[in-house]
Design brief:
Number of strands: 8
Structural class: alpha+beta
Order of helices and strands: HEEEEHEHHHHEEE
Distance between the termini: 38 Å
Low-confidence stretches: none
Number of helices: 6
Oligomer: single chain
Strand order of the largest sheet: 1-5-8
């Protein structure tokens, strides 16, 4: 409901039925994949530095300040989601909008699950931060792709405009608090 920007207290039976139908279709078609690596890092006033790679962002630096390690990850729902979105975008615009919301919710669920796994391994995590947030340029995605080989390992590609394919994919950096 949040991704549809509507009240969670709605009693519109047609909408609720369409949401259930789309969520079921999403659960049947998605093939989530994630990839993560832990890196040692240094943090300056306006950058996160991992080896010889710098991510220039004051907000990111503030988010990971005090951390000596970060997790960099990628997650995707797979290519079938893009096919569904294209199909319904032509044949059923209402279903396409609801499907878009269901897929957005699902990729967040996949990212949250990865974080839960890391926490279960004893890591104390900061908030995840992705290229395109505030002052971390979307172009920084290229560095993440190179660092953890997202294309080779889980099939996410990066366009020349720095958008990810499949579209329901996420990259992020998470600070790991020192014990």
């Amino acid at each position: 409901m949040r991704y549809l920007r509507t009240s969670s207290k709605t009693d519109d039976e047609r909408l609720l039925s369409l949401i259930d139908e789309c969520c079921s279709e999403v659960n049947d078609c998605v093939k989530p994949k994630t990839l993560h690596r832990i890196f040692d890092c240094k943090v300056t006033d306006d950058s996160l530095i991992i080896g010889d790679v710098s991510f220039h962002s004051k907000r990111l630096a503030d988010t990971v300040k005090g951390c000596s390690k970060v997790c960099i990850f990628g997650a995707t729902l797979g290519t079938e989601c893009d096919r569904l979105l294209r199909t319904y975008g032509v044949t059923d615009i209402s279903k396409s909008a609801v499907l878009q919301a269901c897929l957005a919710s699902k990729i967040e669920e996949v990212c949250d699950s990865l974080e839960d796994t890391l926490r279960a391994e004893g890591m104390n995590l900061r908030q995840r931060y992705s290229p395109g947030y505030f002052d971390l340029d979307i172009k920084e995605n290229k560095k993440i792709f190179d660092m953890i080989e997202l294309t080779k390992r889980i099939g996410i590609t990066l366009t020349d405009t720095y958008q990810m394919v499949p579209t329901k994919s996420v990259t992020a950096i998470i600070g790991i608090e020192n014990d």
